[in-house]
Amino acid sequence: MRRELTTQDVRPLIGNLSRTNLYQVEFGGLSSGLSGYLNSRSVSSQFIAENSGLMCYEASLPGSSLSQVQSSNFHGVVENFAHTRVFTPITLSFYCDNRYRTLRMLEHWMEYVVSGNGTSNNNYGGNNYNYRLRYPNDPGTGYKSNSTSIFKFEGDKENRSVMEYSFIGLFPSNLSSVPVRYGPNNEITRVTCSFSYDRYVAGSIRSFDSFLGISNNQQNFVGNSIKKFVDAGWDTPGFVSTILNRG
Amino acid sequence: MASQRQLRYPLTRIESDSDYLAINVVKYNPPGFSGGSGSGDMFNIQPKNGGGNCSKKSIQGSILLPMPDSILDSNQTNWESNSINSVAASAIGNIKQTLDTFTLDAAIKDPSKVLGDALAKAQSTASNALEAAQDPAVRSALENYFVGNAVNLFGANVDATSLLSRERGLVLNPNREFLFKGVELRSFDFSFVMNPRSESESNEIKAIINTFKRRMAAKSSAEGSGPRGLFIKAPDVFELQFKRGSSKHPFLYSMKTCALTKMTVDYMRTGNYITYEDSTPVQLAMALSFTELNPVYAEDYNNISPNEGVGF
Q1: DSSP calls for B50-100
Q2: Are A158 and A151 contacting, i.e. CB atoms less than 8 angstroms apart?
Q3: Residue B237: in which H helix or E strand, if any?
Q4: Rounded to an integer, what distance in angstroms lies between the CA atom of residue A149 and that of residue A166?
Q5: What is the pTM of this model?
Q6: Which residues of chain B does A131 touch, with a Cβ-Cβ cutoff of 8 Å?
Q7: What SS3 state is found at A53?
Q8: d(C-alpha A7, C-alpha B1), whole Å
Q9: Cα gap B69→B67, rounded to integer Å
Q10: pLDDT for res A207
Q11: What does the alpha-carbon distance between residue B61 and residue B14 come to, in Å, rounded to a whole number?
């Protein structure tokens, strides 16, 4: 039934819309082997965890689709049934800093995937070098990231809503060629890379949030209160987070 | 498998809601010939000694695999179209009457008499049939039929039915029916695409393939196979069960003990030779063809509750 609405009625709703330019990308969960490999290429673990995501100037919140099968048990009617959730790769675009750490991170991450034969020997540049893959999920040397997230949030401090997307099994799969050219001096070098992943979860998948009952966007008053308490820095000795083994 | 440990792919933890295919490797017990001891089950050789009922003590190890890409079952019994005309049916009935009075002693003492009696019975059947047919036209047709069959005894190669059809436009009612012929054994083809995710998982896949290859092979020097080269012993057999967690799968079918008849491994499923650092292929596909040792009978369903899936 149609409701009679005034502008006053809808103002709280359409006056508080989400804006696209407030988001954050955070890479994490890289194996020690991959971190070490990148470290040796001047890409520190701190840069990967804290800065690389900030250099991402364009991202997309991930999407998925449901594959379907059809049935015509009722003649003339086609019923659709979902059977498999398909996750599509995401594309992230980065500014490249003047030490090329963003570019190096992506370039050498992809190189690491196929560096099963090693790259430190003289043979790497030789014409008889063979590529071999690294194991994707090996605890020490795997190339997949299991803690990369995209956070979507809003600017006002009162609104603490965060939409988090947690990626499982993410790795760079398509690093686009980087255009460089003679032209204006103020053009920034930009790097675009597609990432494949096994799946994503809308909401947090951290064990700490799971313990509090607020993972996967679940609402839990007690859990949310403890989270606010910890996030606000009131847990300075780290008792709660230590006890709960915040992951 | 030498240590009889459990092999599984993938190596991740199996949860209570995980579906998977459990395969036990079992030592083959030949069915033998001896049936039951009582008169009621003396011909029942399968339940006691049959290969499909290998004892739990003979389990050599187990392999847990993910649900195959394709799960099909095909239950089949053999039926065939059969016909018998009324005259032949009547003759058989009379011969059976003769056999009712048949004794082994009489057949040994005077076989020619027993055979003669049987032929006389058949002859009288033909005569009776002709007498029963009062209609002269039908009588003539039947006579042609018998004549056709009679001359065939001397190698004339005449189709008695064709004679009848040619002369009268009639054929004897073939009383065609679809008759049960026997049972069939079920076969199952499963294929698994395997991607080693770590070195330990690669070793597990290698062990799984090795185990299937070894256990499906005949044994040339096994205990009880006599001097080497004289006999070869049957391979091990496999008990397959779809499971959910630790329970039987609540929907899918059950399988009797199976022989692994064929195993195919595609080591280059990526289309070209590409491996991990220790030369493990990046993706493999393993196809297994199993055939049950025993047919499925209606009584097999007696002990399956509706919660245990669709049955065999």
Answers
A1: -GGG--GGGEEEEEEEPPPS-------EEEEEE---HHHHHHHHHHHHHHH
A2: no
A3: strand B237-244
A4: 5
A5: 0.83
A6: 274
A7: coil
A8: 74
A9: 7
A10: 77
A11: 18
* CB–CB contacts below 8 A, A to B: 36
Q: Which string of b and e fits B99-124 if b means at least 16 CB within 10 Å?
A: eeeeeeeeeeeeeeebeebeeebbee
pLDDT-based confidence at residue B231 (cuts at 50, 70, 90) = confident
Query: Nearest 5 degrees, angle CA A157-CA A162-CA A166?
Result: 150
Instruction: Give residue A118's region: left, alpha or beta (phi > 0; psi -120 to 50).
Output: left
Residue A134: which of B202, B277, B279 has the nearest Cβ? B277
Query: Helices B136-152 and B160-168 meet at what angle, rounded to 10?
Result: 150
Cα angle value B101/B104/B107 (rounded, 5°): 85
| Amino acid symbol at A78 | V
Mean of pLDDT values over B31-53: 62
> In Å, how far from its chain's centre is CA B209?
27
Is the Cβ of B199 closer than 8 Å to some Cβ of chain A?
yes
Six-digit token pair at B277?
Answer: 């650092």
B24 pLDDT more than 80: yes
CA distances B53 to B35, B62, B74, B288, Å, are 14, 17, 21, 21
